[in-house]
Amino acid sequence: MAQNVVFKHINKIYSFFLSDSRKKEVEKIIFLTAIVAFILHLTLIALVDIGIIPINEADNKNSLKLLSAIYTPFTIILLYEIYSLIYYLPKSLTIYLGKQYEIIVLILIRKIFYDLSNASVTHAPFEFSQIQGILITFTSLIVFCLLIFCFYKLSGNRCILGDERQCDGDRSIKYVIAKKILAIGLMLLFIVLFIWSFTVFGHISPTIDNTILILKHMNNTFFDIFFTALILTEVLVLLLSFSLTEQFHKIIRNSGFIISTILLKLSFKADGLSNTVIVFGAIAFGVAILGVYRLYERKLFNKKGA
């Protein structure tokens, strides 16, 4: 009886933050906020260009180009992707990891727009290193998107139903409740990190260029801390999964997902080609692990059919 009361309260807290209806509300808020932020950024650039707002010497003109304005709505969209990642934790570990890959790709896309805005103000011809860097970035983006497609293709349609709808016993229900508790914890951490990111840099002068640099630094710190929390969460999920199954292929899948997340976290400490290689390795490893998992499942299914 007491257990049911606890479960009821946990479900109530979970629904407040991460229910289907709440997710739709967050989608609308993010959509409107991204549009408003983009328009405000463009308006600021226009006001500076026509001389209504004077630019300080400390401000970098690269931060006032049209392409740099895309950096702002992409930052907001990234916040929504983090919310979606937390939303899918109790429902499907596969989609949960896929959302991590999507976040990395969105960070890369946002970086492309920022780098192109810097390149667009250069009057001199592109150097070979610049062309090489742009080609590597675009090629990486295509490869990452293809890998993510393969990952979702391998996941099949069953993961969309999620663990919650597949509960058929007391242990399964407790497993889902435990994941909901972890999701609530991640949600609270997300809110705390979001607020902290805006308060820790309050002493820095609010120039336009500083604003861009602060956003970039905040994101690096934010994602580094958050992905550390994701690693710890996945370790706890792995330990919790032992209460449900001792099947080798499921344990390997969950362990492989942890390794993939660790590699993603390491990518935040790397720059340039090293960053690209680590991210590629993380996503490719996730695809390989999921592929092996599906082969095991197919083999077991054939045995049962026989």
Observed structural traits:
single chain, 306 residues, mainly alpha, 10 helices, globular
Short description:
By secondary structure, this protein is mainly alpha-helical.
Task: Explain what this protein looks like in three dimensions.
It is a single chain. The protein is mostly helical and 306 residues long. It has one domain. The protein is 79% helix and 0% strand. It has ten helices and no strands. It has helices spanning 2-18, 20-49, 71-88, 93-119, 128-155, 158-161, 170-199, 208-241, 248-267, 272-305. Helix 2 (20-49) packs antiparallel against helix 3 (71-88), helix 5 (128-155) runs parallel beside helix 10 (272-305) and helix 9 runs antiparallel to helix 10 (272-305). Residues 159-167 have low confidence and may be disordered.
What's the structural blueprint in terms of helices and strands?
Blueprint: H1 2-18, H2 20-49, H3 71-88, H4 93-119, H5 128-155, H6 158-161, H7 170-199, H8 208-241, H9 248-267, H10 272-305
Structural class per helix/strand content? mainly alpha
Report the count of strand segments: 0
Radius of gyration: 22 Å
Largest sheet composition:
none
Count of domains: 1
Shape descriptor: globular
Which ranges are low-confidence, i.e. pLDDT below 50, for 5 or more consecutive residues?
159-167
H and E string: HHHHHHHHHH
Helicity range of the residues?
over 70%
Terminal residue distance: 43 Å
The average pLDDT score comes to 79
Give the number of helices.
10
Task: Give the DSSP E fraction (strand runs of 2 or more residues).
Answer: under 5%
